Amino acid sequence: MSNNSSVIAKDNTIRVSTYKLKNIANLIVNLNVNKAVNQLKFSNKRVSLPVLKVLNSAIANAENNNQMDIDNLFVKEAFVGKSLTMKRFRPRAKGRATSILKPFSKLTIILEERISKKENKQKITNKKTKKGNK
Asked: What residues have CB less than 8 Å from 95, skipping those under 6 apart?
């Protein structure tokens, strides 16, 4: 993950369960960044808005910090994990109370640049020529 061609964006406090967030995160994996943004914009799920914010943050990181071309970016991975849980109580009969758990989730999106086949072949041939020169 420490490769220079990858960019990471995180959000540790998304107020939704991990199960609901995983469904949306899996939609955008291996998609081009533009297609992933469109997929999230037209999704009817409430969770898609925070995911879109994290994706836009990752795109901005790639463009401003790493000077990457947005057209070549794609979503390599999207991790979802548990974060903190708020505990609330509901009053019940006979003076009792039951607890209600309100979970938070973590989201990590990793973007990477796609290398065209021509560039990949050039890199391979350059490596072979360097080995031959030694």
From this structure: none
Q: What is the pLDDT of residues 71-116, one digit of tens each?
A: 989 999 999 999 999 999 999 999 999 999 999 999 999 999 987 6
How far, in Å, are 79, 111, 118, 127, 133 from residue 130 at the CA level? 38, 30, 18, 5, 5
pLDDT of residue 67: 87
User: Structure pTM?
Assistant: 0.79
The residue range of the domain holding 102 is 6-133
CATH code, domain with 127: 3.90.470.10
Distance CA(112)–CA(4), nearest Å, equals 9
pLDDT digits (tens, 9 = 90+) for 28-65: 999 999 999 999 999 999 999 999 999 999 999 999 99
User: Could you identify the residue written with the tokens 């992933």?
Assistant: 36
Residue 1 lies in a domain: no
**How many structural domains is the chain composed of?**
1
